[in-house]
TrEMBL record:
<dbReference type="Pfam" id="PF02620">
    <property type="entry name" value="YceD"/>
</dbReference>
<dbReference type="InterPro" id="IPR003772">
    <property type="entry name" value="YceD"/>
</dbReference>
<protein>
    <submittedName>
        <fullName>Metal-binding protein</fullName>
    </submittedName>
</protein>
<feature type="compositionally biased region" description="Acidic residues">
    <location>
        <begin position="160"/>
        <end position="170"/>
    </location>
</feature>
<feature type="region of interest" description="Disordered">
    <location>
        <begin position="156"/>
        <end position="182"/>
    </location>
</feature>
Amino acid sequence: MKHADSQSPVSFVANVARLPQKGLPVVIEADAAQRAALAGEHELLSVENYHAELLVTPWKRNGVKVSGRVEADITQACIVTLDPVAAHIDEAVDGLFLPEQSKLGRQGFEGGGEILLDAEGPDSPETFSGNTIDVGALAEQFFGLAIDPYPRKQGVSMEAADDAGTEESEFQQKLRSLLGKS
């Protein structure tokens, strides 16, 4: 993945110091340069469109909740044929944040308290410093997780690649002869 210090192509820094009770709506529509950067970042052939709608709301006493959706149309290379494969991403975005100095965030780690994690439940809160959170980077994380790591063109199986080379290569023959000798 990428380093924490590198900025997301769809970075959107929200000031969370004084959030309205009903939340701060954020809409991110990636332009051509941002879509090209996303494609490079996630090893895609292209990103045709990228749209995130988020709501940044107060959570607990001084925490922040980010929820919404990220949608995108992408083109990947088939892992068998390398042909372009189109895909649509529609992923829920959900994140909780606590200030670094928050007692709630520290209790579990330093206070010897237990943190109960539910594999199906929400992730534990992340911490932030200052008065801002990059909600665009959070949306990009969910976008990245929704990308199929093994895209395949419809009707293509892994065996299709093997049919072309049914004869053993010289390397495979040597390997087989070595395996026979023990």
